[in-house]
Amino acid sequence: MKELCSSPYFGVALSVIAFGIGVKLNQKLKTPVCNPLVIAIVLIVGVLLVFKIPYEDYNVGGEIINMFLAPATACLAVAIYTKMQILKQYWLPILVGCTAGSLASMGSVYGLCKVFGLDERLMVSLLPKSVTTPIAVSISEPAGGVVPITVVAVIGTGILGGIFAPLLIKIFKVSDPVAAGLAIGASSHAVGTSKAIEIGEVEGAMSGLAIGICGIVTVIVSMFLL
Questions:
Q1: Is the dihedral of CA 79, 82, 84, 86 positive or negative?
Q2: Per residue in 190-222, pLDDT tens?
Q3: Which 8-state DSSP code applies to residue 83?
Q4: E strands of 71-216, at which residues?
Q5: What is the DSSP secondary structure assignment for residue 116, as one 8-state letter?
Q6: Cα 194–chain centre separation
Q7: φ/ψ bin of 29: left (φ > 0), alpha (ψ from -120 to 50), beta (otherwise)
Q8: Cα–Cα distance between 92 and 226 in angstroms, integer?
Q9: b/e per residue, 100-120, with b = 16+ CB within 10 A?
Q10: Cβ proximity of 170 and 53 under 8 Å
Q11: Calpha distance 172→160 (Å, rounded)
């Protein structure tokens, strides 16, 4: 059993199966609350706890999946390319909107950490929560942040965006697909983008574009804050 669990195939298989179950449940129940990523996390944690499998053993395979994070993010460029005409038409609102979204995210974290007197290291870990994981880790780690906290903050932000984005779009009556996509991508990065793609093709492309622009803005702003 120990040899099986410490094999990289175990971590990969468990992750794929858990996420597959999450996708099936999401398709069946058809509710944003039933997020595939949330279901996968709960199932994986449950299996590790029930069978007393060390996280380190599971993460041998988990690290293999992590290698695909950056390429998967880069693949969003395909969706952006297909909507190049929209990008050329709305380049200024897109740039201003993404910059405002990044500043609002980082400013809120910075302000709340100062108000509640949180540790500097914790603030550094939470600051890049609204950009995709590879970028967030590359900002947090060199500045002395705690990478696991950064990853949890990023995933949590993405999950909340994926769950509440469709609801908020309806509440605030956002009818423009460009605005909706940019808002989702700027606030909840790749996880939110997966939901934006479900909402519409334009929303998905604009959400993917927002990930790149917000990532660049966050890197530049963090140079002055950290």
A1: negative
A2: 888 888 888 888 888 888 888 888 888 898 888
A3: T
A4: none
A5: T
A6: 9
A7: alpha
A8: 28
A9: ebbeebbeebbeebeeeeeee
A10: no
A11: 17
Task: Considering only CA atoms, give the Rg of the chain.
Answer: 18
Q: Using N-to-C axis directions, what is the helix angle for 8-29 and 55-66, rounded to 10°?
A: 70
Distance CA 190, CA 142 (A): 22
**Half-sphere exposure (CA, 13 Å, Cβ side) for 23?**
8
DSSP state of 118: -
CA distances from 3 to 17, 52, 56, 116 (A): 20, 14, 13, 46
Average of pLDDT values for 82-96?
A: 84
What confidence tens digit (pLDDT) does each residue in 125-167 have? 999 998 888 889 889 989 889 988 998 999 899 888 888 888 8
User: What is the distance between the alpha carbons of residues 89 and 4, in angstroms, rounded to a whole number?
Assistant: 54
**Rounded Cα distance, 61 and 145, in Å:** 24
Here the tokens at position 66 are 């992590």
In the numeric block, which tokens belong to residue 191?
């996880």
CB atoms within 10 A of CB 97: 21
Task: Give pTM, 2 decimals.
Answer: 0.80
State how far the Cα of 140 lies from the Cα of 150, in Å rounded to an integer.
7
List of residues 6+ apart from 111 with CB closer than 8 A: none
C-alpha to C-alpha distance for 129 and 39, rounded to whole angstroms: 21
